[in-house]
Write a structure and sequence with these properties.
By secondary structure, the protein is an alpha/beta fold. The chain has two domains: 1-24 and 65-150, no CATH class; 156-246, no CATH class. The chain is built from nine helices and seven strands. Strands 6-2-7 form a three-stranded mixed sheet. It has a two-stranded parallel ribbon with strand order 1-3. Strands 4-5 form a two-stranded antiparallel ribbon.
């Protein structure tokens, strides 16, 4: 049986939020470098250069990659045999971690969350509460994934109830050109298909937590329908940019 102290989880969440505020994931940086090397458009190449230079400056200076430091989303897989040491609820532990992470005196992050968003719209000033998704799973381990999704990209989220004969690819291609620059390109597309509306939206967010492996996927080829869909979307979405430049 694993015993987890509430203080350890709180500090882990706080540390993770500070870390991701100024470090890009390695897979993202590799994908950006690969895109930079292959890009032929001078304007696009210059934009990618700015992304990479900004990433380096933030990593060295330990300052936020973007002024929008996101709304916190946490995905938890809690083992059934885990035992907790402390008197706080799991949600309260996560939110205390968010509070500490965003109010760190050496790198205070922007608080974006509002209390009563359809009323007084007062800022909570510590970016709580987080959006928390919890699964109870077999085992004695706790898995925590933390993301800070910017409000610009969140505001561009789209949902549609398609007919069985409708094409997911066609729908995505109709939506992307309407998104403008508010999601801070270069962007990652997360697509969730199936289930109820809230399940589809959650699947889309979870897909964004997967490693960026498009280069490897293109090299080896699709092995199932999901990978076929990913490759088709990759080619056709990027072709939209070529058409617009032309």
């Amino acid at each position: 049986m694993t015993v987890i102290r509430s203080e350890d989880l709180i500090q882990s969440v706080a540390d993770a939020l500070q870390f991701i505020s100024y470090y890009h994931p390695t897979d993202f940086l590799r994908a950006m470098v690969d895109a930079w090397e292959k890009e032929e458009s001078p304007a696009a190449k210059a934009a990618l250069t700015q992304v990479l230079v900004n990433s380096r400056m933030c990593a060295l200076g330990k300052r936020p990659i973007c002024q929008d430091t996101g709304i916190v989303m946490v995905f938890l897989n809690v083992g059934m045999d885990v035992r907790w040491e402390g008197d706080m609820s799991l949600d309260d532990m996560i939110n205390e971690g968010v509070r500490r992470g965003y109010q760190h005196p050496d790198n205070v992050l922007r608080a974006s969350v509002l209390d009563d968003p359809d009323g007084a719209r007062a800022n909570t000033k510590d970016n709580t509460p987080a959006i928390i998704h919890t699964r109870i799973v077999p085992g004695d381990k706790l898995e925590v994934e933390v993301a800070a999704k910017g409000g610009g990209s969140e505001a561009k989220a789209k949902f549609a109830m398609l007919n069985p004969s409708d094409s997911v690819v066609d729908w995505v291609l109709s939506v992307v050109p309407t998104m403008g620059a508010g999601w801070c390109p270069p962007g990652l597309l997360g697509v969730g298909v199936g289930g109820t509306p809230e399940k589809a939206m959650m699947l889309a967010k979870e897909s964004l937590m997967e490693p960026i492996d498009m280069a490897a996927l293109k090299e080896r080829g699709a092995q199932n329908h999901e990978e076929e869909l990913r490759l088709e979307l990759f080619e056709k979405v990027n072709a939209l940019a070529s058409v617009r430049r032309a």
